[in-house]
Write a sequence for this structure.
C-alpha cells in the first residue's frame, strides 16, 4: 500500500511533542483516524488539520479531550446550521425576484 498520503505516528509524536496514547484517545472519540499499514501506525494527511485544531485547543485553551470533543461537535453543528441558512436564503431570493 502506498503510504505517501500518511504520516507515521512516531514522526507526529516527536514533531508535536505528544504521546501515542494521546493520539489513540483522539481516535477513540472519533476526532482523527489512525491507519495501520504493515504493523505501522499512520495518520492520513487529511486529518492533520483536525489534529492541529485539537492541539491548539488543548494547549491554548487548556481543554481536556472531552472538552475538545464537545467543541468539535458544536463547530460541526454550527457549520451545518450555516449551510442550512445559506440554502434557505438562496431559496428565499428566488421568490423575492419573481
Amino acid at each position: 500500500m502506498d503510504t505517501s498520503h500518511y504520516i507515521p505516528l512516531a514522526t507526529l509524536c516527536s514533531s508535536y511533542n505528544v504521546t501515542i496514547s494521546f493520539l489513540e484517545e483522539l481516535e477513540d472519540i472519533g476526532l482523527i483516524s489512525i491507519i495501520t499499514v504493515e504493523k505501522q501506525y499512520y495518520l492520513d494527511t487529511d486529518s492533520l488539520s483536525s489534529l492541529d485544531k485539537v492541539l491548539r485547543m488543548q494547549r491554548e485553551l487548556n481543554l481536556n479531550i472531552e472538552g475538545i470533543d464537545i467543541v468539535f461537535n458544536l463547530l460541526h453543528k454550527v457549520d451545518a446550521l450555516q449551510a442550512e441558512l445559506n440554502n434557505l436564503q438562496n431559496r428565499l431570493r428566488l421568490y423575492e425576484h419573481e
